Amino acid sequence: MTEASAPAPIGASISDGTGPAVPLVSDAYRRYALVILLAVYTLNFLDRQIVTILAEPIKNDLGLADWQLGMMTGLAFAIFYTVLGLPIARLAESFNRVWIIGGSLAVWSGFTVLCGQATSFAQLVGARIGVGIGEAGCTPTAHSLIADYAPKEKRASALAFFSIGTPLGGLLGLAMGGLIADAYGWRTAFLLAGVPGLLFTAVVFLTLREPRKAMSAAAAAAHAPGKGHFAATLKYLRGKPVFWLIAFGAAVKAFIGYGHAPFTASFFLRNHAAEVAQMADKFGLGSVGFLGLALGLMGGTAGIISSWAGGAIADWAAKRDIRAYMSVPAVASLISPFIYATAILLPSAFWALWLLILPGLLGSLWYGPVYSSAQSLVPPQMRATSASILLFIINLVGLGLGPLFVGILSDVLANGPLQLGSAEGVRWALIGSAFLGVVATGLFWIARRTIREEIVS
What we know:
With 457 residues, the chain is mainly alpha-helical. It has one domain: MFS general substrate transporter like domains (Growth Hormone, Chain: A, Up-down Bundle), CATH 1.20.1250.20. The protein has helices at residues 27-53, 55-62, 66-92, 97-115, 121-135, 139-149, 155-163, 165-184, 186-207, 217-223, 229-238, 241-271, 273-282, 287-318, 324-345, 349-355, 357-363, 367-376, 383-415, 421-434, 437-448, 451-454; strands at 13-14, 22-23. The longest helix has 33 residues, at 383-415. It is found in: Membrane.
């Protein structure tokens, strides 16, 4: 009996359309694989986002402006990350996805280490580009892999579990980065952030399985990409209005989240320096280390709960009405900016930090519903490519433009006609960008109208 035709254990399944579904992996292995992929994604976001807590020390050391911080944390990374995600996802439709994820992990971890060696803005941007090149191979490939591992009725929960890597990586990046930067400098923080990924690469290569090997020959043929696959997927998605609505709705959410990330610590350091120093001193920490720990623990924990809850709530509610996949992120996007603005306007750093937990609880609810919907709107052979198109839009708009927009707006408000100064400039840049969440609400709500008719797998 050949490997292609060997029976697989009970778990996620696939069918060639002529008979019963063929199981691909066992339930126990699926749980293990999800934990490993979560660890990979956590390292992905740790290495991507650690630069945000290091932004102020880097700014002071290298003499940068806020727009340069936005360029370094966003656009320089995002252009290569998003553009390369498309051909890599195309490769993932037929090539071994485990190899792609493992190789990508090694590349981005190595370039994270190199970020700590930069002595100029140009060198740091170059290293960040390298991180973006490596990370381009992770998320679309992992989404495709998870969609094969998990049955349809558990897909939102599985992808939401994987997406916990976003807040968990942010938590570790902020907490670890801030503490290490205070103790040993920002360069050492980059070094210690990159090394674990280089070591974890072996775990990925040695223990993750490519489930396509468990398919029957007929099923494999049915799920294989055809000639001109990217063009075919794009053409198919043109007839799926819901895909584009959720893509741009999620892009707006990412625009806000990524835009705020590099400047939240800067906001507290510029507007509440004395109070932050006083709170930090009680724990024997410096201001940057304290903020990294506080923002990481509060925002990260809230984000982890939010990511998991978004998928669980959507899967539960969708059993009665599939439109819940859009209702959950729409309502959360409407409420969040009002709470966020209140927190940023409070005169107390202590209460502002605590109130920011609530937007954190609402901010990641969209992960599971959006990512699972994108996988369900296309047939299996188009999943990696559709995920890459979705992430191209989310990350180019969100990661590429969000930090740059907030940085430019902060500079304009600080030094332009209003002359608000750097402290008030960053405050109102954060508040103004937060209310773009209302746009996301509208897009998700419009998508809600026809999502039932457009889901196919």
